[in-house]
Amino acid sequence: MIRDSVIEFLDDQGFEAFGASDGKEALDKLTNGEQLPCLILLDLMMPIMDGRAFREKQLQNPALAEIPVVVFSAYQDVAATANELGVADYLAKPVDLTRLLRIIRQSCLRR
Fold it and tell me: Across the chain, where does the E strand assignment appear?
């Protein structure tokens, strides 16, 4: 439900966004897609393949490794986890939409 709300919000802000229900589906979409996104919003808690496993697989694929990742999570130690994963930024849940937009604009304008 949160994923769908964030996608709808980003669409309303003029961004083309798509979602995946788990890390495996996300990797499949990224590797089979025609165009790579300028940013990945990564939830750490997902079924089948969680955010940590996704990040590990992402970094193993040279085509995907360069895409910046922003972690968002309800973990209390989201900052420490984000640092461990070497991501561009992080957001704690509930997501601050103003900050999310600022991060996306900064990341996507650089690419």
Answer: 40-43, 69-73, 89-92
- CATH superfamily, domain 2-110, is Response regulator (3.40.50.2300)
Cα gap 104→69, rounded to integer Å: 10
Angle subtended at Cα 1 by Cα 66 and Cα 83, rounded to the nearest 5 degrees: 35
- Cα dihedral value 43, 2, 76, 39, nearest 10: 40
35-87: per-residue pLDDT in tens?
899 999 998 888 898 999 999 999 999 999 999 999 988 877 888 999 999 99
Q: Where are the domains of the chain?
A: 2-110
pTM here is 0.88
- Cα dihedral sign, 61-91-52-45: negative
Look up residue 13 and give its two tokens: 């802000």
Residue with tokens 């957001």: 91
